[in-house]
Amino acid sequence: DSFEDQDSFQASGQAAGQGEEEAFVHEDVDRLIRRWRNEKYAPEILPFDKDVIQNMSELLEFVAETLDGERNEGEGQDPHDPDFCLRNIDLERMRYVLRDYLRIRLWKLTRWPQHYLEPKNQDLLSAAERAFLSEYWDNKRLFLDNRLLTTIPPSKRALNEKLDFL
Questions:
Q1: Nearest of 6, 3, 43 to residue 25 by alpha carbon
Q2: Residue span of the structural domain in which 99 resides
Q3: Does residue 97 sit in the same domain as residue 121?
Q4: In 3-state terms, what secondary structure has residue 74?
Q5: Domain tally, the chain
Q6: More confident residue, 151 or 59
Q7: H-type helices in 2-157, by residue range?
Q8: Alpha carbons 157 and 142: distance in angstroms, whole number
Q9: Where is this region: Disordered (predicted)?
Q10: CB contact set of 157 (below 8 Å; sequence gap of 6+)
Q11: Interior angle at CA 133, CA 130 and CA 137, nearest 5
Q12: What is the pLDDT of residues 15-54, one digit of tens each?
């Protein structure tokens, strides 16, 4: 059993004429898990998939609201109901995957900001990541200007890779 094969966000439904519960797995769950794994093990940032992230964010919000509604209306409900507990655990697991995916992307951006500021790499980023990266680099450059670069000779103060430090 792989991580992807474990069902996510089960919705109970009646199978045609059988009266059994049928598992439903949202297709974006598998896509997010695949993107998360790929991003985690790729040395460079991979293209951002806006549709998957938006769909999963909306889905997670909907599931959280549904579970909160069930918790609030079912005051006499057993808090240790296995179905309810498993759905909560699954919700938290998918929240973790989404957050970790975004965290990994931000970590890569902060490791090599100049590389991702190049025009050819801007297409890989979301609008929010581009804004974050631009602000991050501006703050880092100001910090370096104020703390480090003022102490070295003026000919060596530029922040680029084409310097000869010897």
A1: 6
A2: 26-36+48-111
A3: no
A4: coil
A5: 2
A6: 59
A7: 27-41, 50-73, 82-111, 113-117, 127-147
A8: 12
A9: 1-23
A10: 149
A11: 145
A12: 334 444 555 667 889 999 999 999 999 999 999 999 999 9
